[in-house]
Structure to design on (649 residues):
């Protein structure tokens, strides 16, 4: 099934021939305690005639930097811990009306003016009734303190009355509408004074900022994005859902991203930032809308490859040029599938089949190489079904899904309600399993597409969507019918693709070719690759058409499209020599704020390192670019074998 050897077609386009695992350099066979690339459908290469080199990826988490790129194409940086763009908020229509009222500071004068302003709306008789009612003194029941006008007023008239009473008579009366009629309730002297209502919303303290959302830049180190936001929520005693973000970022690395907080002022976030573990906040501003997943156009990566062997500047130059101009296969990287022997996508199979017991059993199954307390907790459950004892042993931060399952069984005691236990796992994590299965099928499909037809260009039967580059207009929102089920995957498109034919094939390039993630609302290519979807899913007891029939709506996958080959933007590199593996070779944003030294190459250093810097669209995996460059297994288990020294961090 492999394509015949074909020379490179100049320097402008990608080579037609691709390399498979058979061409890859020999590397130590990793043990079966962790996933390998072929296990998740990753097998092909683009660049011909290159046998790769060895180097260590992420020897230190400070060797991997990610800076988000916003929808306008600007790289997000943390440049200050305290600066805030906090302009005076624009005045609402209600506030403008209040300013025009010129409410007197003297209470008695304000009281007298109120009735002058009410008379044109309510008439002399009703205005005098209200004034006499409010001037009554003495203890009375609520009914005695209430006055209802006998006639109905239209909405504009009622709004005008509220405007006057709320601002001229705030301590004297509370005004309500009952069946279209105004009700005036005289306030008692010991009633709590009403809170400022100048923004025209419900009664409550005024929000003195230009928008309901405080935006901030978060730099985190060796922590999950959600973990840091939960730290902030706990410190502020608010719910995690008050926070939004444009995209999740790798745990093992130093990453910079934008976040939003609903009605949390920047000075509170500054105070919390000083106490966070592994994160700093800064560059505060305000705006009207929450940041949501997908509100970005890509990410900028800066990656240090340490202990480079088998390559130098001269031998590697053609390959670096090839990746810059030709690109790499847009595989879903190993992070998508987990780091242990039981892949997320195998759990996803059980979820899609609604086999909840199998899904729970796979999540709770023992793994080789885990922390001792985690292994002991798994054994207490798998052998003894003792949920309480297992939960006591299990570190919550180390295994969120497992903790959720054990917590359910410990609380309810229903050891056979696996559906209920699985449902207690956070929704994003539950969906992660089925998305991992989609990604596995997509990886296998693109491998077969490249084995059959190469990368010279599109062929009849392909599907194509014109390349939008880094514009986030390529990422459309979910259709209404899927809004409550499948979470949108960053970097995919829901545009309707064009079927490539012999008549229009010249209108497209390989960078326009897409393949579908399996679902009930996508087209499939009209050539041999279509059978990959059918055969692989049938082997797992599933059908593409059956993805619309899951008993639970959130697992009915509609599908999307993903480009098979992409190119990095602003690709650059630098060679460095160094001697100490424990010292950083790049500087973070917080290092720059604190004026820390910029690492420099040592002329006669013992080791060689390669620093890469490039931009990728959202949901593209930098490790897949490294795979094309190095021809080396990117699984974290394999990399940990290479990195024999313990991380200095």
């Amino acid at each position: 099934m492999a394509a015949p050897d074909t020379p490179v077609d100049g320097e402008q386009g990608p080579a037609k021939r691709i390399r498979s695992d058979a061409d890859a350099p020999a590397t130590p066979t990793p043990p079966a305690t962790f996933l390998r690339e072929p296990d998740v459908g990753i097998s092909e290469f683009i660049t011909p005639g290159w046998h790769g080199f060895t180097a260590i990826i992420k020897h230190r988490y400070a060797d991997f930097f990610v800076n988000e790129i916003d929808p306008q194409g600007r790289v997000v940086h943390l440049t200050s811990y305290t600066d805030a763009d906090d302009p005076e908020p624009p005045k609402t229509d209600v506030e403008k009306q209040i300013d025009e009222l010129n409410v007197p500071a003297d209470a008695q004068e304000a009281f007298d003016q109120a009735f002058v302003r009410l008379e044109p709306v309510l008439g002399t008789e009703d205005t005098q009734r209200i004034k006499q009612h409010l001037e009554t003194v003495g203890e009375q029941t609520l009914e005695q303190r209430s006055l209802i006008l006998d006639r109905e007023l239209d909405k504009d008239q009622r709004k005008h009355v509220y405007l006057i009473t709320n601002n001229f008579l705030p301590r004297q009366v509370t005004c309500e509408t009952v069946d279209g009629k105004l009700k005036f309730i005289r306030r008692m002297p010991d009633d709590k004074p009403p809170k400022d209502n100048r923004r025209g919303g419900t009664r409550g303290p005024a929000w003195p900022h230009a928008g309901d959302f405080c935006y901030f830049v978060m730099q985190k180190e060796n922590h999950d994005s959600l973990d840091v936001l939960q730290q902030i929520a706990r410190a502020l005693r608010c719910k995690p859902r008050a926070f939004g973000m444009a995209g999740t970022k790798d745990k093992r690395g130093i990453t910079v991203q934008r976040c939003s907080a609903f009605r949390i002022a920047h000075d509170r976030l500054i105070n919390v930032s000083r106490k966070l573990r592994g994160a700093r906040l800064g560059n505060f501003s305000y705006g009207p809308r929450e940041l949501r997943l997908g509100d970005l156009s890509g990410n900028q990566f800066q990656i240090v490859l340490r202990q480079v062997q088998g390559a130098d500047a001269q031998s590697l130059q053609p390959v670096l040029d090839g990746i810059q101009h030709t690109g790499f296969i847009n595989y879903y990287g190993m992070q998508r599938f987990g780091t242990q022997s039981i892949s997320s996508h195998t759990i996803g199979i059980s979820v899609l089949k609604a086999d909840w017991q199998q899904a729970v059993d796979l999540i709770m199954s023992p793994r080789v190489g885990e922390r001792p307390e985690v292994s002991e907790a798994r054994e207490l459950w798998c052998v003894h079904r003792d949920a309480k004892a297992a939960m006591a042993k299990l570190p919550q931060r180390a295994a969120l899904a497992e903790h959720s399952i054990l917590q359910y069984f410990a609380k309810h005691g229903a050891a056979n309600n696996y559906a209920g236990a699985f449902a207690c796992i956070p929704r994003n994590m539950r969906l992660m399993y089925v998305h991992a299965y989609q990604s596995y099928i997509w990886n296998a499909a693109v491998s077969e597409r490249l084995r059959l037809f190469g990368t010279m260009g599109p062929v009849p039967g392909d599907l194509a969507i014109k390349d939008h580059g880094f514009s986030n207009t390529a990422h459309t929102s979910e259709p209404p019918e899927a809004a409550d089920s499948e979470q949108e995957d960053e970097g995919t498109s829901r545009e309707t693709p064009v079927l490539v034919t012999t008549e229009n094939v010249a209108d497209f390039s390989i960078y326009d070719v897409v393949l579908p993630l399996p679902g009930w609302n996508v087209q499939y290519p009209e050539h041999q690759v279509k059978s990959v979807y059918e055969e692989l899913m049938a082997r797992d007891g599933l059908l593409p058409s059956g993805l619309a029939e899951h008993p639970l709506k959130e697992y009915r996958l509609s599908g999307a499209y993903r480009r098979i080959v992409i190119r990095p933007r602003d690709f650059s590199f630098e060679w460095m020599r160094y001697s100490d593996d424990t010292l950083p070779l790049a500087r973070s944003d917080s290092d720059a704020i604190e004026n820390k030294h910029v690492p420099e190459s040592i002329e006669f250093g013992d080791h060689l390192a390669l620093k890469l810097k490039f931009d990728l669209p959202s949901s593209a995996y930098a490790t897949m670019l490294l795979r094309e460059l190095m021809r080396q297994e990117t699984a974290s288990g394999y990399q940990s074998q290479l990195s024999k020294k313990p991380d200095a961090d």
Observations:
- The chain is about 30% helix and 15% strand.
- Confidence is low (pLDDT under 50) at residues 1-31, 196-204, 472-488, 645-649.
- The CA atoms of residues 108 and 168 lie 10 Å apart.
- Residues 107-135 form the longest helix (29 residues).
